Write a sequence for this structure.
């Protein structure tokens, strides 16, 4: 395993398990749809938005030159991906989170 990516907003503060070979670690925070279980429409919207966001992030990840990156570079590049515009191609992660939390 080369990299471990956590995605739930709450996971950023949690301790990740120890992995053999100490893979790179990055956090791609995404809203937890279970926080909206009292509103089925909002839950569906959050799931859809997170799905599209993850599609874009994974697409960027698979575009990295993995064979040319050492562990630290891979970790830095993977974390940097989380700061790129997504969803509509214009939103930053903080803007996206603000919109979802309204």
């Amino acid at each position: 395993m080369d990299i471990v990516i956590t995605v739930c907003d709450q996971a950023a503060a949690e301790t990740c398990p120890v992995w053999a070979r100490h893979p790179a670690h990055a956090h791609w925070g995404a809203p937890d749809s279970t926080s909206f279980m009292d509103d089925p429409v909002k839950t569906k919207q959050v799931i859809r938005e997170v799905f599209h966001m993850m599609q874009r992030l994974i697409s960027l990840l698979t575009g990295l030159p993995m064979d040319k990156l050492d562990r630290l570079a891979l970790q830095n590049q993977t974390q940097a991906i989380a700061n790129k515009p997504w969803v509509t191609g214009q939103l930053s992660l903080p803007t996206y989170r603000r919109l979802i939390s309204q």
In short: The mean pLDDT is 76.
